[in-house]
Amino acid sequence: MAKEVGALVKLQVKGGAANPS
Q: Could you give the CA distance from residue 15 to residue 2 in angstroms, rounded to a whole number?
């Protein structure tokens, strides 16, 4: 579970950096 959460957070951070909107 922690691994999935970390992956989601990483994806969100990456997506936020790519799409600031």
A: 20
pLDDT digits (tens, 9 = 90+) for 1-21: 788 888 888 877 776 666 655
Phi, psi (rounded to 5 degrees) for 19: -125, 90
pTM: 0.32
The amino acid that residue 11 corresponds to is L
* Eight-class DSSP state of 20: -
The length of the chain in residues reads 21
Give the ranges where 1-21 is alpha helix by DSSP (H).
2-18
